[in-house]
Amino acid sequence: MTRPVMEPLGIDGAWRHTPVTHADARGALLEAFRADALPRRFDLAQVNCSVSHRGVLRGLHYAEVPPGQAKYVMCVSGAILDVVVDLRTGSPTFGRWETVRLDDEQRTATLIEEGLGHGFITLSDQATVVYLCTAPYTPAREHGVHPLDPALGIAWPAHLEPVLSDKDAAAPSLAEALATGLLPSYEECRTFYMTQGRSGAMA
Fold first, then answer.
1. pTM, whole model, 2 decimals?
2. Segments making up each domain of the chain, as ranges
3. What is the pLDDT of residues 25-79, one digit of tens each?
4. Does residue 118 carry a catalytic annotation?
5. Are 89 and 132 in contact (CB under 8 A)?
6. Most buried residue among 49, 51, 87, 200 by CB atoms closer than 10 A?
7. pLDDT under 70 in the chain at which residues?
8. What is the DSSP string of 46-98?
9. Residue 37 confidence (pLDDT)
């Protein structure tokens, strides 16, 4: 039986999941999420669902570690450009970003570990995104970095005018967030990952 593909991205702690789709004249069936196929234990604590119009940009969001919040992100309707940013101080890839297109055709998903920043922009007229999370939303421990920070230089689609919430538009730059001391530490994240039964842990 063909197995789904869990492909590591260029940032340690981020993966692209490509499921096996079984299609016939009736439609299609796929395993959108399967815990034993993941490279780490994933204790589901909360499921979020967002509906966004074209050009809406959500993020970049992260949670303090521990406990942080790992995410498994799927676009169940429409299309988005999903973005992962390494916000872990001391990481060899600190400040690096990766993008993955998520849509309702390929049914690709992203797995994002605690300590990494996450955001997306809507490519279709409307998109519905479902996030599986390992920890519930805790406002006091949730933070953001401005997604349009020139120092990050994320390649958002040039043909779209980003639409941000007031909160995301007021988020600090990466340098400002670093100065607050609230960004996750690479070493703290590495220790935390070990407790989560992660395989292929960071060197």
1. 0.92
2. 5-21+28-195
3. 999 998 899 888 898 889 999 999 999 999 999 999 999 999 999 999 999 999 9
4. no
5. no
6. 87
7. 1-3, 197-203
8. EEEEEEEETTBEEEEEEE-TTT---EEEEEEESEEEEEEEE--BT-TTTT-EE
9. 87
Cα–Cα separations (whole angstroms), residue 116 to 31, 78, 87: 25, 24, 5
User: For the residues of 114-181, what is the DSSP string, one character each?
Assistant: TTEEEEEEE-SSEEEEEEEESS---GGGEEE--TT-TTT-----TTS--B--HHHHTPPPHHHHHHHT
CATH class of 5-21+28-195: mainly beta
What burial letters (b/e) apply to 42-56, b meaning 16+ CB within 10 Å? beeeeeeeeebebbb
**What pLDDT shows up at residue 196?**
72
What is residue 1's predicted lDDT score, i.e. its pLDDT?
47
**Sign of the alpha-carbon torsion through 78, 121, 60, 168:** negative
Residue where the block lists tokens 């407790």: 195
From 62, 72, 131, 193, the catalytic residue:
131
Q: Is 61 a catalytic residue?
A: yes
Asked whether the beta carbons of 70 and 115 are under 8 A apart, the reply is no
Q: 181: Cβ–Cβ under 8 A, 6 or more apart, which residues?
A: none
Q: Return the pLDDT at 3.
A: 66
Task: Tell me what pLDDT residue 20 has.
Answer: 87
Residue 190, φ and ψ in degrees, nearest 5? -60, -45
| Catalytic member of 17, 61, 118, 146 | 61
Output the pLDDT for position 61. 98
The answer to whether the Cα torsion of 190, 42, 59, 118 is positive or negative is positive
